[in-house]
Amino acid sequence: MRRAGLGEGSSGQYVASGYSVHEEENEHLQEGLRNKVKALASLSIEIGNEVKNQNKMLDEMDSDFDSTGGLLGATIGRVKQLSRGSQTKLLCYMLLFCLFVFFVLYWFIKLR
Length: 112
Hints:
Helix content: over 70%
Keywords: Coiled coil, Endoplasmic reticulum, ER-Golgi transport, Golgi apparatus, Membrane, Phosphoprotein, Protein transport, Transmembrane, Transmembrane helix, Transport
Mean pLDDT: 76
Subcellular location: Endomembrane system; Endoplasmic reticulum membrane; Golgi apparatus, cis-Golgi network membrane
GO biological process, one term: protein transport
Order of helices and strands: HH
Structural class: mainly alpha
Membrane topology: Single-pass type IV membrane protein; Single-pass membrane protein
Radius of gyration: 41 Å
Number of strands: 0
Low-confidence stretches: 1-12
Shape: elongated
Largest sheet: none
């Protein structure tokens, strides 16, 4: 079946000035679009992998933080235990040490 006005010649073949130029441009644009879709797909896969890796790192950091919290909790427990007992000698020594450091710093600043 022949269609008139679509760039056909008298023998039924398409003329190079109309249809084929647009078809080549269309195929070129389709190829560019395919390349862009492939690039977006690979980029989204890379983003997904990066998110998974970061989630693994965060999980590891949480477990490290939990172990640090256990150590800190044990230290605070020891301090509480010291504060419950009658550690008057220890408190006296700490107070005297603080006063000594204060006077040494005061004397050092005065001599400057």
